[in-house]
User: What shape does this take?
Amino acid sequence: MGRARPSMQELIQRRRNAGFVGRRRELDAFRDNFGLPPEDARHRFVFHVHGHAGVGKTWLTRRLEQTARQEYGALTARVDETASSAPEAMAAISEQFARQGRELAAFDRRLATYRQRRHEAESVPAVGERQGPSTGSMAAARAGLAGLGLVPGVGALAGAVDPVPLAEGTDRLRAALSSRFRDHKDVQLVLDPVETLSPLLVRELSEAAAAVPWLVLLFDTYERLGPLLDPWLRTLLTSERLGTLPANTVLVLAGQTRLDPGRWGDLADVVAELPLEPFTDAEARQLLTAKGITEEPVVREVLRLSGRLPVLVSTLAENPGTGGDLDDPSATAVDRFLKWERDPVRRSAALAGALPRRLNEDIFRAAVDDDGAGLFGWLRSLPFVGDRDGAARYHDVVRAPMLRLQRTTSPRRWGAAHTRLAETFAGWREAAAGGLDPHDGWRLDIWSGPRLEEWYHLLCARPSAALSGALREGIGACDAGPAVARRWATTLVEAGEDADSDAVRTWGRHLVEALADERRRGIEAMGLLLARAGLDTAARVAALVVRGWHRRSVEEFDGALGDFRRATELDPGNVRAHFGRAVVHRATGEFTAAMDALDRLDALEPGSTWVQRERGETCRRAGRYEEALARLDPVIEADPADHVALGSRGQTKMALGRIQEALADLDRAIEQHGDYTWALLRRARVRSTLGDTAGALEDLDRAEALEPGIPGTLGERGDVHRFAGRYEEAIAVYDRALALDPGYAWALGSRAMANEALGRRAAALADLERAVALNPGYAWAVAQRERLLSSGDSPEGGRNDGPV
Assistant: This one.
C-alpha cells in the first residue's frame, strides 16, 4: 500500500537483530495472510497459537507483532493476563495505540468516566442513597453492578450457596434497574460497560484502520484471558451489535489450550490454527549454533535436558557448562543451570528471585541476601526472565521447578524466606497508604497490590495457618468489586500451586468459579465462605452485609433483607446492615419499613445529616413531597454545598409544580458540582417544561459531552423534542436510545406518545405493550396503555414519569 520494499540487507539485519530461530512455518503463514485481501476466502482474521508451557508462545507472539509492525506497517496492541476484564483489555489497546501516535480520544474520555462511575457505584449507593455516614463506623453502601454476562452452573458450589433466581431475563433486569436508579445512564454504564465502551472503541479503531494498512490485536496467555474475553471477542467477530470491526483487522490469540469449540467451532473458516510443538532437532541445533555451541557432546546434553522446549534450550544455551558435568544422569534443566553458575552468590540470587510472583529491583533486594542485592541487572539478562506489565517475571517452566527445589530441599528456609517477603510487602503497604482503613484500601492499587502479595507469601510460608485469614480477607476484596475479587481468588490458586497445598488450591479454584459471573459479583463467593469457611461472628456479619448489598444490586430483595436481618441479629449496631434494610424497603415501596430502619440508624448515629437526607429522599419517593422538603431543607441549611441534597430538593419541588424554585436548586447543584450529569438531565427536563427548548438541549449537549453514548441522555433529548412538538425528531432519538439498549422501557413509553401524536395508534400500543412486558410495574406505561385501549381519540399522554 505504497510502502517501499526493504532491501535484502535490511531484511537480513532484521533477522539477525531479532535473534529468532525456528517457527518459520508459523511465521510464513502469518506473513502470507497479509498478501491476501480481506475479501479473499483464503484470508484469515484470527490466528490461534497454542501449545504447552515453554514451547515459545509468547516469544512467537512478540515476533508476530514485530513482523506486523515493521514489515507491514500495522498498528498493533498486545494484551496479556494483567487485563482482568474486557474494559481493561480495551484500555490496554488504547494505551498502546497512543504510544504509536494514534490516540483514541473519545474512547479514553468515556473510559475515564466509566472508571469514575464504577468507583462511585462501589463507594456509595445510587443518588438519593448516596451519602453514607460521616463517621468511620460505616462505609457507604455499594451499588455493585459491573457487567452482564452468562450465568454459569454452580458446579463445585452445589449445596454451599442459597438458591438464587438465575432465570430472570437480561432485558427485564435492565428495566427493573432503570426504574430504581435515578439516571438510566448510571445503570447502563456501570451495569454493562462492555456494551457502552465497545461501540466507541470499534468506531475509533475503524478511523485508525483507515490510515494504516493493518490493525493487529494480540492476546497472550489466552488460557487465562479466554473465560473473560471469549464472549466479547466472539460478538465483535460475528455481530454488528457492538459496531463493525474494520476488515483489515487481524487477531492473534496465544494460549496453552485449544479454543472452546462451543464458542469458536462455527468460526473455523476464519481461524488459522498454529499449534506449537517443542523445537525440532534442527531448530534447536540452529539456536545453539547461533549461540556458538557446536560441540556435539554439549549439544546432545542440552537437547536431552531441555526436551527441546525453546525457553530451556535458550537458557541452557547461555550456560552450556563443560564436559565434566555431563555424566550426571539425574540432573534436571534447572539443576544443570545452577551447577553451571559457578558463582554461589549468583546461584543463590537466581533461586531467591523465583520466590516473588513479579520482580522489580526493590522486591529483588528484599528476596536476596545483601551480597546479591546488586545482581538485578544480571538477573534481567537471563533468558528465562522476561518483562510483563512493567515487571520482571520468571518463565513458568523455569520458576516452578525452582520453587519446588527450594520447598523440598529446606522447608524451614522456604518458610522463612516467604515470611520475610510477606513482612516486606506489609511494610510497603502501610507506608504507601498511611492509616487507610482496609475497607477502603481494597479499592486502591497502592494498598491492594501489596496486600495480595503479602497474602501470597503468607500462604506459601504456612498454608494451613494462613488460609482462614486469607478467606476472611476475601470479604473485603469481594466488596471492592469483581476485578479485585478475582485477583484475590487467583492469588489463592497460585499460592496453593506453588506451596503444593491442596486445601489452598481447592479453595482458590472454587472461589474463581464462584466469581465467574461479574453481574453477581460476590453473591456465590460469600455463600461459599458462609457455608464452609468457619467464619467467626464478626466475619459472618461482614459477609452477610456484603452479600446483602450485592443481592440488592440484582433485585434479589427478599434475599438481601434476609442477609441484613441476620447481620443485625448478630450485630445490632451494624450501621451498614440497617442502612441496607432501609434502601431495600424503599426500593420495594415499603416506605414505613424504610423509615423504621432509618429511625434505628438515627439512634445509632444521632444528629447525622446523612440520615435526614435519606429520610427526605424516602419521603420524596413515597410522594410525600411537603414532608420531603421539611427534611431536606435543614440538610441544605447545614451544608449549602450539598449538591446531592440540592438535586433531591429540586426534583421534589418540580413534583410540586414549583418549577422556578426547582430550577434554582438544580442551578445551585450544578454550580457546586460542574459535572453532575444527573442534575443536568433534570434541569433539561425543567427547562423543557418552561418552554426553554434551547436551554434544555444545551444541558443535554453538556451531559453528552461528559458521558457520550448514554441511552438515558438520548431519552431525555427525545422528550425535549416531543414536548416542543418535534415528533419525528423525537422518534429518531428514541430509536437511537433503543438501539443502544433494547430493554429501555422508559424510551418505549415515550416513543409511544410521539407515535400517538402522529396518529400512529397501533405503533403506540405496540410500544406500550413491550414496555409493560419488560417492566410490569411500570405504572405510567400501564395507565397509558389502558387509556389508549379504552378510547381511541384521547389526547396525548403527559410526561413519561419513569425513573427519577
